[in-house]
Amino acid sequence: xxxxxxxxxxxxxxELEAIADGDICKCPHCLENFRLSDAEETxxxxxxxxxxxxxxxGKTREDELxxxxxxDYFANCYDMEFVISxxxxxxxxxxxxxxxxxxxWVDTTEKTVKLAWWGxxxxxxxxxxxxxxxxxxxxxxxxx
Length: 144
Known about the structure:
It contains 3 helices and 11 strands; from the N terminus they run H-E-E-E-E-E-E-H-E-E-E-E-E-H. The chain has helices spanning 2-20, 70-73, 128-143, and strands at 24-26, 33-35, 40-43, 49-52, 59-61, 66-67, 79-84, 90-98, 103-107, 112-117, 120-125. By secondary structure, it is of the alpha+beta class.
């Protein structure tokens, strides 16, 4: 179970990294999110890239794909906790992406994705580009 929990954290960290890299899009056919880097790329008659969804097999031109943003990713988060200094300056954010079993959160102050479930804990590092993107999101949410 310990390795499974760590893998869960790693998957979230990798998803955030892919979002930071602009690699996740929503398929207009099945509405599933998929990685462009995993999709088959072909070209249409105008020599424009066409990607095949890894879920439904639908083919879509690159300019018709909706790129998934950090705002989309955290749209249904469970809670946010801002870390601020004594003079109320933003320092970081903790965002809960799963609760109940297990509870999982992204913590930019420690640059990690963490998991807790009963007595077990797991974590993995959050890559710097993804951490910076989440921090930008956190600063905007804090200012709102």
